[in-house]
Amino acid sequence: MRFKSHTHRALVAPLLACCALFLFSAVAHSQQPEGQRRPRGAVAGPTIKLPRGEGASAEQTAGAKEEAARVAAPQKWEYCAITGIVWHQKGFSLSAPQVPAAVVRYFPSTVEEVEGVNEEDAIANAFAKLGEDGWELTGIKSDISLTDGNGKSSTTYFFKRPKRSE
Where is 20: in which H helix or E strand? Predict the structure, then answer.
């Protein structure tokens, strides 16, 4: 029995020594002052913009003022939509050809028509005109109506652009 207890002590002593060493290093690491830590990662801190007269150039100050004005004033938008197709007769006789035109409605109350050779061409011409004028497509609404076996569909295209100063 004496042999077993002596062996037991021989195994426990190194284990206790390892635990004590681990605890000592953990306590020593936690007592390290905060000022000695180095920032990690791609960015060490925020960019600091100095006010004019303290190292900032006139361009930096003007840029900061423009950005502050932009953030302060919310962006305003104007809207329009291609609402459908209308057909116009070219000429006064009954046999005169009909030409399709895409109806562009500028909100709140202006309407314009853009002609084409066929319906797809009229819509494509309206898209091209609106794109040149700075409008972007923001949404599409499609309606399908089925009554008594007859079907009818319509599509509305919505656009927006930043409101121009008046």
Answer: helix 2-30
Token pair in block for residue 158: 């919505």
Three-state SS across 35-85? Answer: HHCCCCCCCCCCCCCCCECCCECHHHHHHHHHHHHHHHCCCCEEEEEEEEE
Tell me the pairing of strands 136-147 and 110-115.
unpaired
For the chain, the domains span: 77-162
For residue 46 the two structure tokens come to 């925020």
B/e letters for 2-31, b = 16+ CB within 10 Å, e = fewer, are eeeeeeeeeeeeeeeeeeeeeeeeeeeeee
Give backbone dihedrals phi and psi of 138, rounded to 5 degrees, phi first. Answer: -115, -20
Q: Which helix (H) or strand (E) holds 151?
A: strand 150-162
Is pLDDT at 61 greater than 80 in this prediction? no
- pLDDT (0 to 100) of residue 1: 47
What is the sign of the dihedral through the CA atoms of 123, 126, 131 and 137?
negative
Q: Tell if the pTM clears 0.85, that is, is over it.
A: no
CA distance 76 to 157: 20
